[in-house]
Specification:
By secondary structure, the chain is mainly beta. It is built from 6 helices and 36 strands.
Amino acid sequence: MRRSFAKRVIGRGSAAAALSLCLLVGVPAVSEALSPPEQGPGEVVFVNAGRIISINADGSDRQVLTRTKISVGSRNFERESLELGDSDPQISPDGQKLAWLRTTFAGGDYRLQLLVGQRNATRRVQLIDSVNSFISSLGWTPGGGLIITYLRTVGRDRKGHERYQQRLLTMKTDGSHRKVLLSGPTGGFLATPWLTAQAISPDGRSLLYTRANMKQSQLRIRDLDSGADRLVTYGVMQASFSPDGNGIVFSPEDCFADGQECDSGKWLEPGLWTVGADGSNLTRIYASRAGVESPSYSPDGSRIIFSSARNTPGFDSASREIYSISSDGSCLTWLTNGSPASHSPAWGPETDVSYAPRGCGADGRGPLVEIRPLKRRKVDATPRLWAGPQIGSRLLSSLVGYWPGSVSEYYTYGDCAYFNPARCSRPLMIESTRRCHALDEIEFGDRRSFMRRRGALVVKSTSRGRPGSTAVASGRAILGIGQPPFDSGRGGRPNTFADHLEAIRLLREVGKPWVPGSKLPARVRKPACKG
């Protein structure tokens, strides 16, 4: 049952009581008593740090529904980059159930589960539990069944490569009555074409899906009764129907061909697009430097929700937030602001609620940073230093070790606290390593200069006149401050040595408060290194 339902009932009850009182005392009822009660907010569910989160359609009332006790942040790069945990939440058409996927490791293999529970994710049941199989899309049919794109292993070819079978399936919520709507060729992982179910039309008669190859995808509609199949448009990544089934909102796929091919006019510009179900009136309603994911209309058709890394498009995995926009492309607003990244949003199904935000733009939403340093390891530097949850406009977005057994800690400040991308800076990384594991001669650039800040030795480097990395020696720790290795450098203000100095100013020991102007531990010249 939705949280706003009780508010609506109370509102109706209060109006009825006021009208009855007026009739009893002979006083005419005021017009407000006869007006309909104010609509409560709709609901949105999305993914954050491998958890399913619920908020109201205006971004308020945030609640963690699944994996409520996990530590947010990880030193495991594989876990962070592959986004293990819960994903793809979808609320059923009757508003009673929630379906989602869960991906974990099992003996070195991927374990995939398809789960269905009550709307608040309690009393869950498991419909699929498979190793080394994949579900690339999950949704509901208008009749309350599930539709998935299922990829499973079916043996190996003569060269020992795994062969996969891809199917677009529907099933009931108890896992029974599985029906194949469409199947693709069986082959290796790079086999083409790849089929992905996007949505079932509101009348239940048509399947919206993408058919992709190594060049460009097609968005197609298949009549489920006759099997007739037709093209809608090209270059689509994710799509969904409008509430009346006559329109489609979609996000375009990236072009990975050469520059001449990408500029040929065959590829759509990044942003949010709409098109008629018959392929007419192709329109970009929102332009963006970054990609758009999981776009869908609200049940009343007034708003479109999606996730995007619009602030720092070159660092997508860290800076994605949930946005909504009017169906005509006006009044863009964000519903989340913070770290870790938020993505894969989906609306609740109610039509008698409001999906409007409180306002357009930033809407006064301050940043929420949940990532914090994890427990100490024997290989960690002494002292353990970090710069807190925020450096200037940058929010701490990940705590990652880049390979198994890494002896370093990596604090990446990749998200932006501001709605206006012009106020955002490029991501910054702080790598902390015990001095005995670091090089005695630090070569960060062509030229180096030495100075002291907060009592610690600071090595500034430049390369071809541009700021390189900066090293800080404190205690038995060496800190490297610079650009993350996976940052493409698109968008945002470039980092400067002043940004590195700001990070040094904010350094504090893990578990201790930041004291402005305090000195860092003095450098230990020849530390012992054991383990």
